Each structure stands twice: as C-alpha cells, then as structure tokens.
Amino acid sequence: MSAIGISGLAHLFGIISIILLLVWLVHYREGIDYDSDDGFRVFNVHPLMMFLGFIFLVGEAIMAFQTVPGERPKGKFVHMTLHLIAIVLGIVGLCAVFKFHNMGNIADVYSLHSWIGISTFCLFGLQWLIGLITFMFPGAQAQTRARMLPWHRASGRVLLFMAICAAETGLMEKAGFIGLKAHHRETKLVNFTGLSILLFGVFVEMSVGVR
Amino acid sequence: MSAIGISGLAHLFGIISIILLLVWLVHYREGIDYDSDDGFRVFNVHPLMMFLGFIFLVGEAIMAFQTVPGERPKGKFVHMTLHLIAIVLGIVGLCAVFKFHNMGNIADVYSLHSWIGISTFCLFGLQWLIGLITFMFPGAQAQTRARMLPWHRASGRVLLFMAICAAETGLMEKAGFIGLKAHHRETKLVNFTGLSILLFGVFVEMSVGVR
To answer: Membrane-spanning residues where (chains A, B) (predicted)?
Structure first.
C-alpha cells in the first residue's frame, strides 16, 4: 500500500471519529452549546473543538504536503493555515472547559489528562511560532532551514502523538465521571470513538513515516 | 543536540518512570505480589510489568541500533531479544489483571484502556513474528527486506505510541477507581508518573525520528 493509500485511511478514520463524537455528544450526552446555562452543554464544546483542531486538522496539516496538489509553497501555506485554525479551535475548546469548571466550581488542571493537554497546547504554540519564523516569515537561511527541518518534522509527529494521548485520557476521565459501566451501550460508543481517533493518528504517522 | 543525546534523555525518563511507578505501587498502594490473597497486590503486578515490558524494554529495543556498540547483527540480536522479554513480561502483566478480575468478579476488557491495550498486544505479537521471519530466521531476500524495513520501523514506532496511550489511559482508569481528587498528593505522583512515561516515549520517538 502506498503512502497515499494510508493517508486515505487516515481521512476515513478522521471522518468516522467526527461522526462518532457528534453522535456521542448530541445523542447520548446533553448537546453542544457554548452559551448554554447547562454546564454540560458548555463542556461538550471542549472534546469537539480539541478533536477537530488539535487532532483532525493537525493530522490533515501533517499530510498536506502529500494530499494538496500543486507546488510546495501551496502545500506549506495549507500546512501553516490548518495549524493556525487548529490553535484557534483549541483556544475555544480550552475556554469551554474553564467556563464549565467556573460554572460548577470545579478545580482546574489537576488530572493527568489536563496536564498532558496543557503541555501539548503550550509546546504546540511554540512549535508553530518557531516553524513560522524559520520556514515562512521572515524565514531563515537555507542552511538553517535544512538543519531545522528534521527537528520540525519529528516534533510535529510527537505533538500529534501527545494530542492523541490527551484525547484518550480525556475520554477515560469523562467515562469515569459519568460512571460508564461494562453493560452500557455508551461505553462501547466511547471505546469505538477512542479507537477511531487512535487509528487516525496511527495512519497519519504511517503515511509520513513510511518513506 | 545529537540523536545520542536524546536517547540519553530517554534512558533518564525511563528510569525516573520506574522509580515513580515503584514509589506509587509500593508506598501509596498495596505493594506488588502475584501470589497474594489481596487482589490489589496481584493487580499491581499489571502496571509494573506492562510498563517494564511494553514501554521501557520496547523503547530500549528501538534505540538499540544507536546505543549498543559493535556490529549491526549484535544490535539486531539485542533488539529482537528485548522485544521477546517484553512479550513475556506483557503476558505476566496481562495474567495479573485477569487474575485480579477473577478474584473480584469484575468484567474483563470493557474499558477504552483495555481495548487499546489488547489491540496493542496483539499487533505487537504480529509485528514481532513478521520481523523475526523477515529479518532473522529464516530471513527474506535482500530486496524484500529493504522493502519491508520502512514498514517495520514505522509500525514499531506506532506500536510504542499505542502502548503509551494504553499506559496513560490505564493511569486515568486507576485514578478514577481509587477516587483521586485534586488535593491528594497521590494525584500529583500519578500525574508525574504519566508525564514521565510520556516523555520517555517522546524522546525515544525523537531519537529515531531526527535523522
């Protein structure tokens, strides 16, 4: 199977993950609304935005050099822009969870999920900024770029991996809070969502890893 | 920083993770004993064996071609043997959790953690077998090996990433079961353990990713 075939599988599992996540949040949970008086509807903005931004768009951005037709500068622009949108969605998602905590008087950033998530978000911002300065504006000298590129690539792959760890631990935390048990249908839905997100990450990593 | 420097950081976080895990299981939890009548002591064999086998030894095996001095066949032998020990430790760790479930009449393999873990274990066994047949005994033709190597490498990196997702979700599940709260000292210990395991994975991936 070619790298293009693998990125096809990545797109597929990305879309499956979005569908499963929406079914879960809208049908099984309370729905999604940032401005609601129901804290749980506010909270549900968090998993959706974090997945759409920090996993789906980031994965698509990583694969953009393979999947966007045309010259390399176009691929680079798509790569940078998708990451920028990811950061904006990520900020909305983080605001949603802090708003939910304020509404319910719940402690912030104490779980392993939140520690992994916050670290990933900060390092991601740093990576985006260093990438912008080095490869786009103002752009470093050719020699420096060539030296930085393997680091930029490896760091980007590791950050997607960290974001997926954040997603899986987040699903576990939520499953614990709502008391999901072995016989609940929702348990299986959450598990399939988690596996689908994991497979998206796996196929993104494979599509850039098999060279 | 060179790839060797990064693998040094990986060793460091590997050892920190073992220490934190032992402090947690022995000092904060019930201790570790496969043959105990106390189910929790039996259970504690699980996180230790899974980390030692499927994360620490696997990470060391991935880095073996850089860290083991001497010719490539020696590195290959160390790589294969560490993975074999990992599988044995993994089987002991899996038996421990099934024994614990039997003792307490708890349902098997229903959480996201267990789904990720079981998938990783099965794919890992497959990867080891295909690797053995292709690269060691009986060994494929040079052309086939060359075609398989990028796939073997990419799959191996993805499997370490899956194993770390399994570990992080496992820590979250346990934290939920024992009801860890924001103000507990144990919560911070579990979080630092999780971050340390994540950093081990990050540095292993970076050490083979930056070429």
So the answer is: 9-28, 48-65, 77-100, 112-137, 158-177, 189-210
In this prediction, the answer to ipTM > 0.90 reads: yes
> Mean pLDDT of successive 10-residue segments in chain B (211 residues)?
86 98 98 98 98 98 92 94 98 98 96 98 98 94 96 97 98 96 96 98 95 68
**Cβ distance of A116 and B198 shorter than 8 Å:** yes
Q: Do A112 and B171 touch (CB under 8 A)?
A: yes
Q: Specify burial of residue B104 (Cβ count, 10 A radius: 0-12, 13-18, 19+).
A: exposed
Out of B119, B155, B194, name the one closest to residue A112 (CB). B194
Task: List the structure tokens of B155.
Answer: 């799959």
For residue A11, the one-letter residue type is H
Residue B200 CA: distances (Å) to CA of A44, A98, B20, B60? 31, 29, 13, 10
**Architecture of domain A3-209 in CATH?**
Up-down Bundle (1.20)
User: In B, which residues are within 8 Å of A112 by CB distance?
Assistant: 168, 171-172, 175, 190-191, 194-195
Token code pair at residue B187: 């919560």
The reply to whether A176 touches chain B by the CB within 8 Å rule is yes
B69 φ/ψ angles, rounded to the nearest 5 degrees:
-70, 155
Task: Write a three-state SS string for chain B.
Answer: CCHHHHHHHHHHHHHHHHHHHHHHHHHHCCCCCCCCCCHHHHHCHHHHHHHHHHHHHHHHHHHHHHHCCCCHHHHHHHHHHHHHHHHHHHHHHHHHHHHHHHHHCCCCCCCHHHHHHHHHHHHHHHHHHHHHHHHCCCCCCHHHHHHHHHHHHHHHHHHHHHHHHHHHHHHHHHHHHCCCCCCCHHHHHHHHHHHHHHHHHHHHHHHHHCC
Contact B53, B13 (CB under 8 A): no
B84 touches chain A (CB under 8 A): no
**Tens digit of pLDDT for each residue in A129-166?**
999 999 999 999 999 999 999 999 999 999 999 999 99
First to last CA, chain A: 12
Give the residue from chain B lying closest to A190, CA to CA.
B112
Chain B residue closest in CA terms to A119: B195
Instruction: Reduce the DSSP state of residue A178 to 3 states and report it.
Output: coil
Check if B202 contacts A (Cβ < 8 Å). yes
Any CB–CB contact under 8 A between A92 and chain B?
no
